């Protein structure tokens, strides 16, 4: 019986370590919240800019394993700026607005005048920081997510530019870690950011 217990324990240990392997992992970032369609009008959405230094366009974060090896997390599609632009687009569409892409525009009131023809509003954004750091500690994993974005909202009928800085740090501890839990953590934080920054 003792030998059987040791074999079972060894199997569980192998399974445990097998689930935590270093290398690249991919997560899907999307805007998933539901809304009533209470808004009308057209909104133009410009490409978002990724101003992060020394990381790839798809980089999301990393997890340190017990042996100090590292998993690196990337967004599916390998372009975080495009992914965040799509999430903002979905947010507006779920609220009832029609959307269309517009080119980059000068982030000034004069730029709003030149770029907002036919649109109720125009939107752009920059990514200053976006990183989730996770570290395995025994049976639990601590996750820390830093998001620092600047959103720009051009209001056509006022020829005005609203600059919306967004900066937050969130922490979560999970008893068991999985890429799906990291994905959920990031998506919930992103929903909160978009809803508060671009509230109607």
* Fraction in helix: 25-40%
Provide the succession of SSEs. Answer: HEEEEEHEHEEEH
SS elements, strand count? 9
Give the N-to-C terminal Cα separation.
65 Å
- Look at the helices and sheets and give the structural class: alpha/beta
Q: What does the largest sheet look like?
A: 9 strands, mixed
What is the 3D form?
elongated
Mean pLDDT: 89
List unreliable stretches of 5+ residues.
5-19
Strand content: 35-45%
Radius of gyration equals 21 Å
If you had to describe this structure to a student in words, what would you say it looks like?
The protein is of the alpha/beta class and 200 residues long. The chain contains 4 helices and 9 strands. The radius of gyration is 21 Å and the shape is elongated. Mean pLDDT is 89; it is low at 5-19.
Q: Which descriptors would you attach to this protein?
A:
single chain, 200 residues, alpha/beta, 9-stranded mixed β-sheet, 4 helices, 29% helix
List the helices and strands and how they pair.
Blueprint: H1 2-18, E1 23-27, E2 42-45, E3 49-50, E4 59-64, E5 70-75, H2 80-94, E6 98-101, H3 109-115, E7 121-137, E8 140-155, E9 160-174, H4 179-197
Parallel strand pairs: 1-5, 2-6, 2-7, 3-7, 4-7
Antiparallel strand pairs: 4-5, 7-8, 8-9
């Amino acid at each position: 019986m003792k030998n059987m217990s040791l074999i079972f324990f060894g199997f569980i240990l192998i399974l445990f370590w097998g689930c935590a392997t270093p290398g690249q992992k991919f997560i899907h970032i999307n805007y998933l919240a539901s809304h009533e369609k209470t808004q009308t009008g057209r909104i133009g959405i410009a490409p978002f800019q990724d101003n992060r230094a020394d990381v790839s366009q798809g980089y999301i974060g990393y997890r340190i394993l017990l042996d100090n090896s590292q998993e690196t997390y990337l967004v599916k599609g390998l372009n975080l700026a495009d992914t965040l632009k799509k999430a903002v687009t979905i947010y507006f569409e779920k609220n009832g607005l029609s959307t269309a892409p517009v080119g980059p525009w000068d982030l000034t009131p004069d730029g709003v005048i030149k770029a907002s023809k036919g649109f109720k509003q125009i939107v752009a954004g920059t990514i200053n920081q976006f990183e989730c750091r996770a570290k395995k500690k025994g049976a639990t994993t601590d996750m820390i997510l830093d998001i620092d974005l600047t959103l720009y909202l051009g209001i056509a009928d006022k020829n005005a530019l609203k600059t919306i800085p967004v900066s937050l740090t969130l922490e979560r501890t999970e008893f068991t870690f999985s890429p799906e839990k990291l994905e959920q953590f990031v998506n919930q934080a992103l929903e909160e950011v978009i809803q508060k920054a671009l509230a109607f």
